[in-house]
Design a protein that fits this description.
Length: 90
């Protein structure tokens, strides 16, 4: 029988720091993800997964509020869309 992976429990500091980053931009670049992981003592995969899950939650929260204006939301930070999506895969 396969062992179930444990879910990471993020500290209040880790969550608060990632929420602040998410408020600034929805997608973090590979270099920023590495910085956050190092600063928060997490793996890059944990940071990446947290942002993916947070974007899903954000989309559900804003779904009923109509269209989100692009000027209201900074999507990509620290690089272009291509750099954000086509970087090295984890």
């Amino acid at each position: 029988m396969k062992k179930k992976k444990l879910r990471p429990l993020f500290s209040a500091h880790q969550t608060q720091t990632m929420e602040k980053e998410f408020a600034k931009c929805r997608y973090v670049t590979e270099s920023r993800r590495a910085e956050l992981a190092l600063d928060l003592n997490l793996t890059e995969m944990q940071v990446k997964t947290w942002f993916q899950n947070r974007r899903t939650k954000w989309k559900k929260e804003t779904k009923g509020e109509g269209e989100v204006q692009s000027s209201d939301m900074q999507i990509f930070c620290g690089g272009t869309r291509e750099q954000g999506f086509l970087g090295k895969r984890l």
